[in-house]
Amino acid sequence: MAVHIRGKYRDLWAFIRQPLDRARRIRRASADFLPPDRLQTLTTALHPRRLELTVQQVRSETPLARTYRLVPAGQITGQASNQAGQSLPPFRSGQYLSLEFRIRGVRVSRPYSICCSPGESAQGNYYEITVAGCENGFVAPHIWEQWRPGSRVYSSGPLGQFGYEPLRDHDHLVFLAGGCGITPFRSLWRQIRTGEPSLRCTILYGAASPAEFIFREELEQLAAEMPARFQVHLIAEEADPQWHGLRGLITGKRIRELAGEPGDKTYMLCGPPGMHRFVERELAALDLPAGSLRKEPCGESEEVFLSLDYPAAARDLSYTLLVHQGESTRTIAARGSETVLVALERAGLAPPAQCRSGQCGYCRSQLLAGRVYVRPETDGRRQADRKFGYFHPCSSYALSDLEICVPVNPLPPLPEPEAAEGSPEEALRSTGASPSTEVPPSAQAPSSRPAGGPTKK
Ligand code: FES
Prior knowledge:
The protein is an alpha/beta fold and 457 residues long. The protein has 3 domains: 47-155, Elongation Factor Tu (Ef-tu), domain 3, CATH 2.40.30.10; 172-296, 3-Layer(aba) Sandwich (Rossmann fold), CATH 3.40.50.80; 312-412, Roll (Ubiquitin-like (UB roll)). Helices cover 24% and strands 25% of the residues. It has 11 helices and 19 strands. The strands form 4 sheets. Strands 4-3-6-1-2-5 form a 6-stranded antiparallel beta sheet. β7 (172-178), α5 (183-195) and β8 (200-207) form a beta-alpha-beta unit. The longest helix is centred in the N-terminal third of the chain and has 21 residues, at 8-28. The protein starts with 7 loop residues before the first helix and ends in a 26-residue tail after the last helix. FE2/S2 (inorganic) cluster is lined by residues 353-356, 358-363, 392, 394.
């Protein structure tokens, strides 16, 4: 092969002329703005960073669960907003919204699964989410108290990977739901009912008591109208003289009895952390084929100490957190029983966060010094991240003093909706809870007991 050498003087001359050539091209270039990139415009429309929504309707599902219908802001109140008159971004059944809040000075987010179908959403230009009341929570009581028709709400666009994928999943889906973890399944069964005639579903839904079955009427109707495609099994954990249905937990034996032998089925699991732990153990005994279980992890858990490998001594740890964020460095005091993300939010250093379950990577941070415990069920780190000291504050608990580097939240803080009612610390103390009391996404049990799994203390 011949190699053409231009000569060192010609190359040197070209190198010297380079800045002059560049300056000449800049002088001749148009001063007009570049025309909008259509692909970029489409991408931004489909994946907006923040949506402004308005509560249009509030429905009570059970005494402990309410469904909120959200529409683009301005549609109801007529107020100016950047979403008014626009179509909401489309989504896939099983996805969630990450809602943003500013509650008495604390900036927090919570993921809630969308519980209407994509078709209904496209037709009516709305999303629906169901929120379980939670006495000791931080966000759920705020929603229950503050949200009424006309309230302004801020959220991400639809996110998440929990859903049916025809190239990957079997035609027989087994839904394993606990408590408020039924909400993503509602979107799925509504979509499947009208849009996926080849699919069939076996639904096992556990709740602490019969009164806490959300969408019970709809489920019973579904089973009655299409028995060949939808088998519904409601399982109440507690004894109730009025309940003549199944009782107990969603065990492996029960899953096998009601859904049949594994092999040609895809299992989908969503529920509170206690239920996840319990059902995953039961499923392990069934020896499912690889890749046949889909999970919607329930990130922040106040029951981290129930994880078998959690070091008991860390439960009452108080530690110092040295945080580098952008140009600033701060030292804050924190507790080992809460996630590092909650400690950051409490201190007003909220990094970006969406799933709060160690899966999306938005809160990915660098651990510069110290040790953390990461719950195995929510450890979504890549191998390289583990090796080079990255972690997700939303699913990690400190085991010692920490020094970390966290990303800056690219979104500006929300406007304060009303006069501040005390400091963040007072806000948290007054509820007796940390901002992580509810467990997302869609995994809030209607009561403090995780339905379908062991009872929470
Ligand atoms: S918020 Fe998704 S990984 Fe932390």
